[in-house]
Write a structure and sequence with these properties.
This protein is mostly beta strands. It has 4 helices and 35 strands. Strands 13-14-15-16-20 form a 5-stranded mixed beta sheet, with no helix packed on it. Strands 26, 27, 28, 29 and 30 form a 5-stranded mixed beta sheet that branches. It has a 4-stranded antiparallel beta sheet with strand order 1-2-3-4, with no helix packed on it. A hairpin with a 5-residue loop joins strand 22 and strand 23. The longest helix is centred in the C-terminal third of the chain and has 13 residues. The two termini are 18 Å apart.
Length: 467
């Protein structure tokens, strides 16, 4: 589960988050390395390049210390903290001249602590970290176009919108609205606007007149070019404003933008580069014998009053009575007066995995499940990026919790920006299932798809994709 991927201004490298850390990878050569030297107990999030490609700003998280906004050389090394108090910091970005950084301060209280949650909103700080100033109480995904004194951001009125405000906190303008957009990205030269809608990427000229424009794939007031028939998120531009990048699971997509918007019947075929990587799962080693307790076997209602359970590595190898031979060298745990049983599988579990993509190192919902004997969960409706990232963190041994399985975000048929999964054909259904399978789903949840044939198409797609 690669998150928050951003391609360097020259198009040669990509920085992204995986397993709680930031990684920089050569797109063509495939060479990859950690960006920072921060300790293992600090998670790293939301990387963004400076326009000259020399520095990367990012945010951090630790359950006890909370978070920072920090900047580091793109070559790696020691990071410099720019914020002057703890908080839940996300979505940091550089101004074009590299002198100012704008970030969002989020609230906690569900998965992360309530403390240090006052005055959420968009803030700016100079590159020396001397002054943090609030710009706006609302907005997310802050970004810059060509100018240093004005920041763009997404906001919500009646529907998603792209707005901007001066760094002085005044003169807010709403430039675009959309029925379904989940991401807007202004090009570095300020001339173009990329947006993601219903899991596809589009690009349109950035109109400079004062009125608010409603934009979408079928807009007739501006030319709109579709760049992907595949899911798009974490959109980034190159510095020349003629190449666009986005990700889906382990794949990085790249497309050339025709900035003349000439009408063409030819389908744009993005270049796809796999940037995923493998990491060893955390598997316990050694032999443990649980002795003296009541063993509930779940085999024909058999209960062994004074039993022995032997576990080698991560497998139960023997269940029997007190005469069971205990291997030499095994760790023996006396459970007299207690009961032992197989772990429970909660096939319809719900629980948060993150706040604003910040995955806690100690998730109270996961600990609660474990304390009641749940050793595997299947969540049939959760945020795709958050739950599959948490699942991989659990597999790697970075966080404690049951094994985590999920459908990811539901295939929602009703009109809800960011969730609507339009299904009008078997190909549509296969597209949605493929994008979820790429990030770790083996099941999907079809929800509020109103017509019977839509539900049948999802079921047939699942059969064909073995989901």
């Amino acid at each position: 589960m690669l998150r928050m991927a951003q391609v360097s201004p020259n198009g040669e490298k990509v920085v992204f988050e995986a397993l709680g850390k930031l990684w920089v990878r050569d797109i063509n050569g495939g060479k990859q390395q950690r960006l920072t030297r921060l300790d293992d107990d600090i998670n790293e999030l939301f990387p963004q390049w400076s326009r000259d490609g020399k520095n990367i700003v990012f945010t951090t998280w630790n359950d006890q210390k909370q978070g920072t906004v920090s900047v580091v050389s793109a070559r790696g090394g020691k990071a410099k903290v720019l914020t002057n108090e703890p908080g839940k910091y996300v979505e940091a970005t550089f101004s074009p001249d590299g002198e100012t950084i704008v970030y969002r301060k989020a609230k906690g209280g569900y998965m992360t602590p309530r403390t240090w949650s006052q005055e959420p909103g968009l803030y700016q700080v100079d590159i020396k970290g001397k002054k943090n100033t609030k710009i706006s109480a609302s907005g997310h995904q802050p970004q810059f176009g060509a100018d240093n004194d004005r920041v763009f951001f997404m906001d919500y009125g009646d529907k998603p919108e792209l707005a901007s405000i001066g760094l002085n906190g005044f003169e807010k303008r709403t430039h675009y609205t959309s029925d379904h957009a989940t991401e807007f990205r202004v090009s570095p030269d300020g001339e173009h606007l990329a947006f993601a809608e219903r899991f596809r990427v589009y690009v349109t000229p950035f109109a400079k007149h004062g009125e608010t424009i409603n934009i979408g794939p079928k807009a007739n007031n501006l030319p709109v070019t579709q760049l992907s028939a595949r899911a798009g998120e974490s959109i980034s531009w190159n510095n020349d404003s003629n190449q666009l990048y986005w990700t889906l699971g382990p794949d990085l997509y790249q497309a050339t933008v025709d900035t003349t918007y000439a009408k063409s019947e030819a389908q744009i075929e993005p270049k796809i580069t796999s940037i995923g990587f493998k990491e060893n799962a955390d598997v316990p080693r050694g032999t443990v014998a649980f002795v003296g307790g009541k063993v509930i076997t779940l085999e024909n209602d058999q209960v062994i009053e004074n039993g022995v359970v032997i576990v080698k590595d991560n497998k139960i190898v023997s269940v029997g009575d007190a005469t069971t031979q205990i291997p030499s060298g095994a760790e023996v745990i006396d459970i007299k007066g207690k009961s032992i049983m197989p772990g429970l599988f909660d096939a319809h579990a719900h629980g948060g995995q993150a706040d604003d993509e910040i995955i806690p190192q100690q998730n109270w919902a996961l600990y609660s499940g474990l304390s009641l004997g749940v050793t595997s969960i299947h969540d049939p409706s959760n945020d795709t990026t958050e739950i599959f990232a948490a699942s991989e963190q659990q597999k790697a041994g970075n966080i404690v919790g049951p094994r985590i399985f999920s459908t990811g975000t539901i295939l929602y048929g009703a009109n809800l920006p960011g969730y609507t999964s339009h299904v009008d054909s078997l190909d549509d259904a296969k597209f949605h299932l493929e994008r979820l399978k790429k990030v770790g789903a083996f099941s999907v949840k079809s929800y509020n798809q109103p017509r019977r044939n839509q539900r049948q198409q999802v079921i047939q797609a699942a059969r064909e994709l073995e989901m």
